[in-house]
Design a protein that fits this description.
Elements lengths: L4 E4 L20 E15 L4 E17 L2 H11 L12 E7 L6 E7 L14 H14 L7 H14 L1
């Protein structure tokens, strides 16, 4: 049987565990290292959104030990409803990765983002570190991290 893979590019990347991240997820995933996805990455505040396009997006690749259980958890986390995809915040699709050369499941943002929100580096984790560094240097100490988590949760619950 072929392995089932998941590529992540945002809040599910290692080192970015947020309070609402499903804790049981870690035991269902096997880390397979970095990957590169095709698309355009947008900064949506507390989390990113991937859209189709001609860019390169940094991510992490995981092999799914129990795909059905993982998707049950992540579909809720990502706001994906297979019975109502048009209203879903994200859509789950199996797509070819740029690196490594294999197919993985990826969650794509299902709204039209602000064109000015593009993350030109294609790396949300790096953009968050850069933003924190700028916030710290301007003396505000502001952080986009946890404040936006509640907003994200509310937005997904009220969809």
């Amino acid at each position: 049987m072929d392995a089932t893979y998941l590529a992540v590019y945002g809040t599910l990347r290692s080192g970015l565990a947020l309070p609402e991240q499903p804790p049981e997820l870690a035991e269902l995933l096997s880390d397979r290292g970095p990957c590169v996805l095709a698309g355009v990455l947008h900064d949506l505040g507390a989390y990113p959104g991937l859209r189709t396009g001609a860019g390169r997006v940094a991510g992490e690749l995981y092999e799914l030990d129990d795909p059905a259980s993982v998707f049950d958890i992540l579909d809720v986390y990502e706001g994906f409803d297979s019975t109502d995809p048009e209203r879903s915040l994200y859509l789950r699709r199996r797509v070819p990765l740029l690196e490594p050369a294999l197919e993985a499941w990826v969650y794509f943002y299902n709204r039209e983002p602000d064109p000015m929100s593009v993350i030109s580096s294609g790396d949300w984790m790096r953009s968050q570190k850069d933003e924190r560094r700028c916030s710290a240097s301007d003396g505000t100490g502001a952080s986009a991290g946890l404040e936006g988590a509640a907003e994200r949760s509310d937005r997904r619950e009220h969809g």
